[in-house]
């Protein structure tokens, strides 16, 4: 379970101070599929960075799995993210000079796992997202849909209980979007908490719950779909 | 992330830009190679110096005294049995186990000979092997067998042949007496830089000549005595009382002094080369730094991805630092190897009969690796720190 309490975030631009997130409080339970929607500039990506443990410069409390994230040292914070959160980015963010298997295995490398263990886990997750045959290929030889499957595989390789996706279908055509959303739904069906940021309503509506953000505030009550 | 993985990652990314990586390490190679060259030669000189004092198996050391006549009065050897007795009965006599006389100074000597019943002074060269054949005019040079058994055969110069036998061809087969033995003329030759003397005989044949007198005195100094002091004392004594003191001079051949002079030159050279190498390494280091900065900015995305999937800042810093160290250590190893090869080549051109060999010691290897690692750390630190300090959110935006 993750719980945000009175989150405020300011950006400084020269002398100006911009209030990006305004007193946001929300709770997401384990196994939920939540979409966060909003216009560009609404602060939804900033909120996602906080939820996904990339950003820890904010005021307010963020309790994830019963742990106050402010209490973690910088090094422990990184480890905590590595173990609890899987990130899927808009434009895949794969390292071009590494094979698919190496890309997917990278989070495990930083956990200090053995080669054998890494290979086993990587093969399993690649099989799960249906691209085991591409394990030794390089990212540039893959289609957009395939690359996003690799990114999802990398996000779930550490078996996190939360997967966070920032505009995961933003760079994909509509039929590939359906494919990828099916992969996400399957993941969620297996019990992974799923949080997706999107501005595509057809994608957002596939979630169980939608949170709308406008000008750094949660709009009204979030509602079940 | 394990250390091994970090090194492999570093190698992988260096391989992405092989030309750039190679260009960057050239400076390191030059710096390390020049220092290793001079050190390998220095080691060789030291080794030779110590070897010189180990020639005798029984632990005896040798001192050598040469006699030089004032006029070019060939045949005058300068050192006789009288001189040997003089030294043996003197107060340094008990420090010496054996005194030998030799007509040879290096490979040449002088003695009296008889050609066509006429007594004449002759200078001669001894031939030890067939590596340096003289420039033959007529007849044939010695065979290997002649050299091995010391056949009484002789080669004479074209001029000597013309003077005594009319022509070069006539001389072949005639008899010439040198010292106490008669030799058959096998051929005639033209003088050159290597063979400047009147005649050439096999070294083994010369060995049969009596050594009652000679131009060189070799003192075998007993264990525990200083050969230098004994040699200098003998030289002094001979200059005062030697049998030929009025027609020539005696001189102790001080190998120590020679080595000392080589060392002096070498020390000067080492200083100069070290300065050049230091500048070279500094500039190379700046090259490495420049390349690492470019690499860091080119791979901003990669850094962001690594940080996002669980790399700590020190993981990133170590990755780039190790990349820089791998680069410079590879340069250091290439420098070590080329330094050794260059030193080997250079020693071949050192004049004289010194037999210096280039030697690489463990200390040199440690030095090369240590310095190149240090350059990698010093000049890779700032770029690596910049990589580690990148803001994750900014990169991924």
UniProtKB/TrEMBL annotation, chain A:
Gene3D superfamilies in the cross-refs: P-loop containing nucleotide triphosphate hydrolases
Cited Pfam families: ABC_tran
One Gene Ontology molecular-function label: transmembrane transporter activity
GO cellular component, one term: membrane protein complex
Cross-referenced CDD domains: ABC_MJ0796_LolCDE_FtsE
Alphabetical list of InterPro entries matching this protein: AAA+_ATPase, ABC_transporter-like_ATP-bd, ABC_transporter-like_CS, MacB-like_ATP-bd, P-loop_NTPase
Domain ABC transporter: 2-225
SUPFAM superfamilies named in the record: P-loop containing nucleoside triphosphate hydrolases
Keywords: Amino-acid transport, ATP-binding, Nucleotide-binding, Transport
Signal peptide feature range: none
GO biological process, one term: amino acid transport
Highest taxon of source: Bacteria
Protein family according to the UniProt entry: Belongs to the ABC transporter superfamily.
Name by which UniProt lists this protein: ABC superfamily ATP binding cassette transporter, ABC protein
């Amino acid at each position: 379970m993750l719980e945000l309490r009175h989150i405020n975030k300011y950006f400084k631009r020269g002398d100006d101070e911009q209030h990006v997130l305004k007193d946001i409080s929300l709770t997401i339970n384990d196994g939920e599929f939540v979409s966060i929607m909003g216009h560009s500039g609404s602060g939804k990506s900033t909120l996602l960075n906080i939820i996904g443990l990339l950003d820890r410069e904010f005021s307010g409390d963020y309790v994830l799995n019963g742990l106050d994230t402010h209490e973690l040292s910088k090094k422990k914070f990184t480890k905590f993210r590595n173990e609890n959160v899987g990130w899927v980015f808009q434009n895949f963010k794969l390292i071009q000079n590494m094979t698919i298997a190496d890309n997917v295995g990278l989070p495990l490398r930083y956990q200090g796992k053995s080669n054998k263990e890494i290979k086993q886990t990587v093969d399993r997750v690649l099989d799960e997202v249906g691209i085991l045959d591409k394990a030794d290929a390089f990212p540039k030889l893959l289609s957009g849909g395939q690359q996003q499957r690799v990114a999802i595989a990398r996000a779930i390789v550490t078996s996190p209980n939360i997967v966070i996706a920032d505009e995961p279908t933003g760079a994909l055509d509509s039929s590939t979007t359906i494919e990828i959303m099916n992969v996400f739904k399957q993941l969620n069906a297996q019990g992974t908490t799923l949080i997706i940021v999107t501005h595509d309503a057809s994608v957002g509506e596939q979630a169980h719950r939608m949170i709308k953000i406008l000008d750094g505030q949660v709009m009204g009550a979030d509602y079940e779909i | 992330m394990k250390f091994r993985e970090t090194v492999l990652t570093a190698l992988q990314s260096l391989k992405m830009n092989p030309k750039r990586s190679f260009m960057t390490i050239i400076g390191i190679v030059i710096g390390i190679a020049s220092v290793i060259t001079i050190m390998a030669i220095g080691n060789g000189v030291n080794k030779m110096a110590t070897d010189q004092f180990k020639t005798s198996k029984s632990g005896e050391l040798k001192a050598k005294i040469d006699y030089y006549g004032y006029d070019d009065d060939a045949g005058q050897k300068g050192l006789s049995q009288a001189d040997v007795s003089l030294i043996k009965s003197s107060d340094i006599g008990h420090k010496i186990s054996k005194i030998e006389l030799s007509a040879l100074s290096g490979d040449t000597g002088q003695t009296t000979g008889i050609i066509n019943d006429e007594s004449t002074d002759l200078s001669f060269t001894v031939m030890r092997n067939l590596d340096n054949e003289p420039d033959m005019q007529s007849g044939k040079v010695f065979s290997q067998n002649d050299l091995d058994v010391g056949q009484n055969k002789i080669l004479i110069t074209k001029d000597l042949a013309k003077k005594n036998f009319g022509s070069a061809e006539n001389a072949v087969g005639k008899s010439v007496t040198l010292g106490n033995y008669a030799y058959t003329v096998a051929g005639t030759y033209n003088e050159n830089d290597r063979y400047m003397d009147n005649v050439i005989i096999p070294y083994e044949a010369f060995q049969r000549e009596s050594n009652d007198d000679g131009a060189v005195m070799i003192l075998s100094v007993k264990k525990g005595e200083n050969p230098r002091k004994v040699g200098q004392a003998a030289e002094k004594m001979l200059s005062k009382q030697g049998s030929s003191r009025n027609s020539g001079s005696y001189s102790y051949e001080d190998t120590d002094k020679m080595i000392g002079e080589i060392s002096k030159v070498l020390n000067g050279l080492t200083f100069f080369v070290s300065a050049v190498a230091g500048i070279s390494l500094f500039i190379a280091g700046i090259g490495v730094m420049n390349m690492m900065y470019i690499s860091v900015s080119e791979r901003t995305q990669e850094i962001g991805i690594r940080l996002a999937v669980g790399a700590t800042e020190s993981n990133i810093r170590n990755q780039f630092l190790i990349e820089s160290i791998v680069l410079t250590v590879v340069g250091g190893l290439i420098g070590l190897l080329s330094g050794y090869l260059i030193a080997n080549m250079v020693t071949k051109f050192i004049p004289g009969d010194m037999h210096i060999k280039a030697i690489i010691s463990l200390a040199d290897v440690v030095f090369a690796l240590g310095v190149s690692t240090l350059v990698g750390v010093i000049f890779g630190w700032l770029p690596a720190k910049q990589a580690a300090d990148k803001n994750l959110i900014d990169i991924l935006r």
